[in-house]
């Protein structure tokens, strides 16, 4: 497939590109270059307000987009309508708010490490062959479980969205590119579902 | 449930993985990529350039990208990172976190700047803590015995400071135990974990699988770091994980999901 990686908000592009071996992959830095891809990936790390600033030039492109777009971590969070981290609106392409994970005695924040994901829908193509798998999370903010968008959840000081889907957007809170062979399988599954 | 992390630490000197006892007498244990590749079952890797901090160098960035191309688990780079630019290069080359030790002590504001630029989750503070007179003190410049010194800061106070400045994790290296393989310093970690809201990784002293069980059962640490016990093939990571799982410690099952 022909896949574009939006460079505005991401670092760690090397790891992401590794998971896309066998596909045609191009880094795209401007919306004008982002036409004609089978899918676009929006990676993201860091502070939500920094990411929002960098994604601003992409807003109308993303709003009008129809091709599948996969947001990863902060790349997913900024698609939501409200971001507690920056105390501001997000791009509002996904319904819902991203909130701070509360601190519990045996659950320090950030949520950092490998956690299991539970699928909430019958449509489990994304998690085909991944029963019981753990994925790598590294974040302090997350979106609560929302219906019907949340496809899979994780438990850490509460229940949160691990995967959301709405229209052409899919968002993952974990980092498939850092989640070993389970992450690789997830990416393969995702690309299979949008074929 | 969040799995407890098993974290091999690769001490790097001049592009090779080395290991010493209490920071002394380093011996060569292998190449960076060769050892990184061996640790697919680990939950995270730490690469620590032990010469960078004391010799005023920043870690050579070319191997960071090679590591990112070789492994698909998270990794952290430590050693001599003193500026936003240096951290940015390392993170852009594929590292997930940078760990700061001595430069954070000389310029605590750096923690705040890094956290603001890259997010707290990417900023780890390494703390070399030494037991003196029934309290614990932070040492700096620990890459070499001749340069290390007591900062006079109490470890517990320093943890509060770095947490308030936006650090996302602390690695507490209990220097009295380091390289001796007599187990993690449980009482020190128990003392330091109170009032610490960010994840703690225990470091220094692992010598057998029971030491990992001990630290996970008796403290709140979310990860345990070790070096020689893994490099010298004294302990296989999947064997360690099976042992922990049997003793009700949540670990990540390592399985091949791609056929």
Features:
A: 195 residues; alpha/beta; Rossmann fold; eight-stranded mixed beta sheet; four-stranded mixed beta sheet; B: 259 residues; eight-stranded parallel beta barrel; 28% strand
Task: Quickly describe the structure.
With 195 residues, chain A is an alpha/beta fold.
Describe the structure.
The complex is a heterodimer of chains A (195) and B (259). Chain A is an alpha/beta fold and 195 residues long. In chain A, 20% of the residues lie in helices and 33% in strands. In chain A, the strands form 3 sheets. Chain A has an 8-stranded mixed beta sheet with strand order 2-1-3-4-14-13-12-9. In chain A, helix 1 links the parallel strand 1 (2-6) and strand 2 (24-28). Chain A is globular and about 45 Å long. Chain B is α/β, with parallel strands linked by helices and 259 residues long. Chain B has a single domain (5-246), classed as TIM Barrel (Alpha-Beta Barrel), CATH 3.20.20.70. Chain B is 34% helix and 28% strand. Chain B has 11 helices and 12 strands. In chain B, a hairpin with a 2-residue loop joins strand 2 and strand 3. In chain B, helix 1 (32-38) runs parallel beside helix 3 (62-70). The radius of gyration of chain B is 17 Å and the shape is globular. The mean pLDDT of chain B is 90. Classes of the chains: A alpha/beta (195), B alpha/beta (259). At the A-B interface, helix 1, strand 8, strand 10 and helix 5 of A face helix 3, helix 4 and helix 6 of B.
């Amino acid at each position: 497939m022909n896949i574009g990686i939006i460079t505005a908000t991401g670092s760690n592009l090397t790891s992401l590109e590794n998971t896309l071996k066998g596909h045609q992959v191009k880094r795209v830095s401007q919306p004008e270059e982002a036409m004609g891809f089978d899918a676009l990936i929006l990676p993201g790390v860091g502070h939500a307000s920094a990411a929002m600033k960098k994604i601003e030039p992409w807003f109308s492109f993303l709003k009008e987009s129809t091709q599948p777009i996969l947001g990863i971590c902060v790349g997913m969070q900024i698609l939501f309508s409200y971001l507690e981290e920056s105390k501001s609106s997000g791009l509002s392409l996904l319904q819902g708010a991203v909130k701070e994970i509360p601190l519990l005695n045996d659950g320090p924040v950030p949520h950092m490490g490998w956690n299991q994901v539970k699928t909430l829908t019958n449509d489990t193509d994304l998690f085909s062959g991944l029963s019981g798998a753990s994925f790598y999370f590294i974040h302090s903010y997350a979106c609560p479980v929302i219906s019907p968008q949340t496809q899979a959840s994780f438990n850490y000081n509460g229940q949160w969205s691990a995967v959301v889907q709405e229209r052409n957007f899919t968002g993952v809170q974990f980092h498939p590119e850092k989640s070993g062979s389970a992450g690789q399988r997830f990416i393969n599954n995702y690309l299979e579902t949008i074929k | 449930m969040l799995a407890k992390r098993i974290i091999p630490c690769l001490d790097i000197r001049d592009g090779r993985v080395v290991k010493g006892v209490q920071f002394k007498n380093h011996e060569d244990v292998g190449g960076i990529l060769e050892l990184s590749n061996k640790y697919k079952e680990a939950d995270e890797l730490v690469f620590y350039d032990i010469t960078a901090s004391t010799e005023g160098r920043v870690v050579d960035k070319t191997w960071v990208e090679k590591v990112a191309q070789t492994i698909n688990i998270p990794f952290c780079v430590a050693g001599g990172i003193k500026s936003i630019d240096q951290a940015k290069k390392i993170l852009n080359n594929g590292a997930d976190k940078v760990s700061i030790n001595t430069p954070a002590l000389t310029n605590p504001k750096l923690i705040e700047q890094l956290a603001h630029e890259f997010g707290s989750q990417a900023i780890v503070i390494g703390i070399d803590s030494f037991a003196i007179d029934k309290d614990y003190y932070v040492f700096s410049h620990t890459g070499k015995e001749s340069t290390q010194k007591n900062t006079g800061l109490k470890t517990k106070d320093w943890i509060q400071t770095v947490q308030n400045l936006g650090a996302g994790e602390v690695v507490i290296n209990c220097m009295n135990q380091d390289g001796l393989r007599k187990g993690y310093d449980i009482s020190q970690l128990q003392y330091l974990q109170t009032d610490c809201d960010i994840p703690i990784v225990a470091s220094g002293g692992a010598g057998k699988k029971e030491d990992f069980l001990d630290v996970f059962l008796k403290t709140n640490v979310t990860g345990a770091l070790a070096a020689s016990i893994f490099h010298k093939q004294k302990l296989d990571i999947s064997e360690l994980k099976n042992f922990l799982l049997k003793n009700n410690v949540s670990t990540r099952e390592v399985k091949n999901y791609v056929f």
